[in-house]
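Subject: sequence -> structure tokens, single chain

Hey, anyone have a minute? Need the predicted structure for the following. Not urgent.
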Amino acid sequence: MENELNVLFEEYKNAFVNLDVMDKKVELIKELKMIVVMMQQMCEINHIEYALLTSKEALNESLNDDDYLNALFVYINVLKELIGSFSIGIYERH
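Reply:
Had a minute. Here:
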């Protein structure tokens, strides 16, 4: 199973490496959004309250270099907040 997962990841990584820069930016933002949704679901399933940070930078679709870095900053901090909320919620149960 682990080897199969590594093979699939290598294929995915190789496809990513061959994308042009703009498509890489779009793919990375998409991946971060997916992780945010997964963390939200984990909090909801475990009945853990969380605050979802919002920012206009996260909604910007232009993805020039500056906008892209601003969006990454926002999504990273949203994830930090969600992971923190989840961790505290789980800790408080024990």
